[in-house]
Write a structure and sequence with these properties.
about 450 residues, alpha/beta, FAD/NAD(P)-binding domain, 7-stranded mixed β-sheet, globular, binds flavin-adenine dinucleotide, Kynurenine 3-monooxygenase, EC 1.14.13.9, Kynurenine_monooxygenase
Length: about 450
């Protein structure tokens, strides 16, 4: 008898994995705690958090045969547009001329993937909240919408149920399971910039907008309806500008007028948005092993990262891609082997991107506003232009390539050391264009890390 795969969680990763598994001819059931949100909103309609999709994500979508269906729902952003405190802006390209990351509404994206999984024959059970899992029996207990309980025993169980995974909770009672979680000091709130009265984008739609202010920042990504979804990142407490010090509308207005005045002018619904939208926390989780008794964790359930590299979803999609390669290689009759190979291959890479995501908060909120940082980026861009194969900026390795995250991390550390030395030159700001670029590159080559 053919084994059935049970997926817990119909988020972005569970939905894409269902497509892959169906395409391998497997029976797939997905259990999701939410109701079917596709019935509430049509694609692209209404406000929604948006995500930046980059190379690894596209590659996984292409292999699943769904890239062309997703593309019309995306908007390319070829760089960051930095907004300083005086209202001036400048543009920093993310990579080469034709390289971009793509803004897409999370809800619309999830709906496209679910529709595809369903069209391929996956069964989706909404309003099925996993309450408990017995890992040794692979027995799952659900709570349904009407409060009833339901039990299921699974052949193959995959937890794609996000950063507070119920399957991972069950793994925690297993011997030698390691789990680490950290809520960072900052939280976030979604805000909104509507289209202008004439129906146009209020800001340049080809950029991800950032208002970096040291310990806090605002970002904005474009939507298909010509609005922008903004995310305000603030410390919860301990600083003058923090969530704990915002008591009323006046405080909100004062912060926006002082630090984000050009954005403030574009946000007629700021006060209502601020009041109505929740303040959310940001978590990093790492755990191991990811598999036990033919059950596996994937996506955020295995490795939830803070959002500052825009890689959580892209990384989860890459998980699906790699898992599918292993299924292709080892077949569907030895899941323990496939899952074991998957966790061994993938864990060093997800550790690396979790760390990079943490580190990138400092770059996004602080460094990018520093003129010396801009010179540093120019030198790195020139190195890349002169020696495209030997020097790739870390951001490009992570965002525009499928180099293993762990390799990108190691090379990035070496480049950081070399660039720290280059930046010690007191004349670097004036002379950056005429440095001895060959000598800089030689430092990489002598280290053997090209
Ligand atoms: C503010 C913010 C911005 C981000 N921006 C980006 C970005 O630009 N680019 C990027 O690549 N990543 C980004 N990420 C990360 C990205 O959102 C996650 O990595 C991605 O959503 C993980 O997908 P997932 O399917 O593993 O988990 P989720 O998206 O969390 O999906 C899990 C699913 O499981 C369901 N579920 C949970 N518990 C249960 C249960 N007990 N029973 C049944 N179902 C359950 C949930 O309802 C949900 O549908 C961002 C994250 C945040 C917080």
């Amino acid at each position: 008898m053919k084994e059935k795969i049970d997926l817990l969680g119909a988020g972005l990763i569970g939905s894409l994995l269902a497509i892959y598994l169906k395409k391998r001819g497997l029976d797939v059931d997905i259990y999701e705690k939410r109701q079917d949100w596709r019935k509430i909103k049509k694609y692209g309609e209404g406000r929604s958090i948006n995500m930046a999709l980059s190379y690894r994500g596209w590659k996984a979508l292409e292999k699943a045969g769904i890239k062309d269906k997703v593309m019309p729902y995306t908007l390319p952003m070829s760089g960051r547009r930095i907004h300083d405190e005086h209202g001036s802006t400048y543009f920093q390209p993310y990579g080469k001329e034709n390289q971009a990351i793509y803004s897409i509404s999370r809800n619309a994206f999830n709906a496209i993937l679910l529709d595809e999984a369903e069209a391929l024959g996956a069964n989706i059970y909404f309003n099925h909240k996993v309450e408990r899992v017995n890992v040794s029996k692979r027995e799952v207990e659900f709570c349904l919408e009407n409060g009833e309980e339901k039990h299921m025993v699974s052949d193959i169980l995959i937890g794609s149920d996000g950063s507070f995974s119920a399957l991972r909770n069950a793994f925690q009672s297993q011997l030698r399971f390691n789990f680490y979680q950290k809520f960072i000091s900052h939280g976030y709130k979604e805000l909104h910039i509507p289209p202008t009265p004439s129906g146009e984008f209020a800001l340049d739609p080809k950029a991800l907008h950032i208002w970096p202010r040291g310990k806090f920042m605002l970002i904005a990504l474009p939507n298909l309806d010509k609005s922008f979804t903004c995310t305000l990142f603030l410390p919860f407490e301990g600083y003058k500008v923090s969530f704990e010090n915002i008591y009323d509308d006046q405080d909100v207005v004062q912060i926006f007028k002082t630090y984000f005045n050009d954005a403030f002018d574009l946000m007629p619904n700021l006060l209502a948005d601020f009041k109505n939208n929740p303040t959310s926390a940001l978590i990093n989780t790492e755990c191991y092993p990811w598999t036990e008794n033919n059950a596996l964790l994937i996506g955020d359930a295995a490795h939830a990262m803070v959002p500052f590299y825009g890689q959580g979803m892209n990384c989860g999609f890459e998980d699906c891609y790699i898992l599918d390669n292993l299924i292709e290689k080892y077949g569907t009759s030895s899941w323990d082997l496939v899952f074991e190979k998957f966790q061994k291959q993938r864990k060093p890479d997800t550790d690396a991107i979790c760390q990079l995501a943490m580190d990138n908060f400092v770059e996004m909120s602080d460094d990018i506003a520093d003129p010396k940082f801009l010179i540093r980026k120019k030198i790195e861009a020139k190195l890349h232009q002169l020696y495209p194969n030997e020097w790739q900026p870390l951001y490009s390795m992570v965002t525009f390539s499928d180099m293993r995250y762990s390799e990108a991390y190691a090379i990035g550390k070496l480049q950081e050391k070399i660039m720290d030395d280059v930046m010690k030159d007191p004349n670097v700001t004036k002379n950056w264009n005429n440095l001895d670029y060959e000598a800089i590159l030689a430092k990489v080559e002598t280290s053997g890390a090209v």
